[in-house]
Amino acid sequence: MTILEAIIIAIVEGLTEFLPVSSTGHMILTSAAFGLENDSFVKTFEISIQLGAILAIVMIYAKRFIRNFKMYRKILVAFVPTAVVGLFAYKFIKDVLFNSVIVSVSLIVGGIILILIDRRVNGQVSKYSEVEDISERNAFFIGLAQCVSMIPGVSRAGATIVGGVFNGLNKKQATEFSFLLAVPTMFAAAGYDIYKTPFNFSHHELVLLFWGLIVAFISAWGAVKVFLLIIEKYGFVHFGWYRIAIGVLFLSLWHFGII
Q1: How far apart are CA 52 and CA 215, in angstroms?
Q2: Cα dist. 24→106, 168, 173 in Å?
Q3: Would the pTM count as exceeding 0.90?
């Protein structure tokens, strides 16, 4: 992997991490398009640079994290299902599910679901005045929905947003809860992967990780700001069609042996 390839993958990560389009899927497909071998470093790189993106959320929502302590309990309740499932499914997910076919199919299926969900919840009024008021029961069910996103291509953001709107939140609140839940989820996922991976990276690989973290942070910051505006005005339907298009494209490239 060259520095340019690392920067491009990090831009893809930052732009897609909090959108319902699957950042992991996009990074896997981008790496495949570059012809990179799907070795342990590439997999670790794709997971580790998510820390850069999540730091952008911590910075953007710093005041909410500092002032609203009751939110911590709700986020913890939502995080538990993912932590349990992820702990037992980690090896299977990383060894078996990280491939272009699964990602492409997941993108297409998830896109169809997003379009259908958007039509169903269009104009939905929230049960809660603020996202922090969500019940622990509803938070837990959103956490269960997040477990599905362990399949590459499903999208953690997409799964939690869908879970949110089916548990009483409006589109904007569901999106914000998805952002907040991403903090413990992604820190845990990246930290566990780093713990399970032997630390024998070369100097060049450490440089790639450094630039990946920085670029992912910057691109994620901008993406989050724009995403909230798009969701309020247009909903999820365009992201659904995008998922279908990109999934069909990469599935076609795989079929003809291009990637």
Answers
A1: 8
A2: 11, 28, 23
A3: no
